[in-house]
Amino acid sequence: MVQKEDYEGAIPFLEKSIENADEGKDLVVKKDATRKLSEVYSNVGEYDKAFTTYREYVNLVDTLYVRKEQEIEQAKRFAKKISENQNRIASLEKDRELTESKVTLAVRDQELSQARNRSQQYVIYSLIGGIVIMLVFAMLLFRSNKQQKLANNLLALKSMRSQMNPHFIFNALNSVNSFIAVNDERNANRYLSEFSVLMRSVLENSDEDFIPYAKEIELLELYVKLEHNRFQEKFDYEISVDKSIDLDQFAIPPMLLQPYIENAIWHGLRYKEEKGVLEIKIAQSDDETLVVTIADNGVGRKRSQQLKTKNQLKRKSKGMSTIKNRIRILNDMYQDRISVSVSDLFEDGSGTKVELLLKRNQTS
Questions:
Q1: Is the pTM for the entire model greater than 0.85?
Q2: In the CATH hierarchy, which fold is given to the domain comprising 162-359?
């Protein structure tokens, strides 16, 4: 499985091999399986497990080495015993033959000892060389994987930052078309101008991981205003920012809040029979953290699921999956600066509240 690069499938296979080898007390098989398991963990990015498994591999190598030394010592004792038996037999022979036999055995024992010493030195040097090569390889592999992961994260973030729900863009253009159809040139020009400002800002910020809070608030106000123009009969909205907050001390990923606001409008308020309310509040919980609350008194998540078509369910799933991946990557790169919680606003399951905690920009 390792040769076919099916690393995930190879892990349980190798773990089973180690277990079987352990039960059969086959240290050689266990050693080889442990080494391969360490390499597999490294290939799938689980470096802590790779390091721990590699240490087990080194311990097994030491154990085998100790066992080999014990076998050598046992062989020496056995040879000594043979020598003693030969001496007893030789004691019945002539003194001359006994002396020659002792000399011969002494020379032979010295040669064997020298040969064993050379063999042990070769094994030791080979093991040291192998360990050094493995450590260098592991270090280079770790560095390469880390650089590749960073490059992949940057590419994924850039792609996600430039995305906006095509459903919103399509309907925004339909709104312009509706104004033109009734010869409302003034509203058509105004709406198109505001829409173009939003699109231009989204594209301009597509290369940034974080932008000033004040700029994000401007984008949100423009986005909500455009959505409200289409659904004036469905909801009113309010955006409030605590005036005591020094917005220059905080930064936020561009258009991070837009998918949650879009969900509130399209999947909560739009299904409400009477006119609803969308509230967006930005407050400061402590010196290091801002709290953004997006609340709507729409039909709620459970009822919204029941009313949606399959295409709507698929579109929402993709949108939420994208924003979750984006937050995961940002937290991986910037040490858990963002956390999100979603809950029902009321006990009967209606309404939805999204609360985002965003920590201070450490570079500020």
A1: no
A2: Heat Shock Protein 90 (3.30.565)
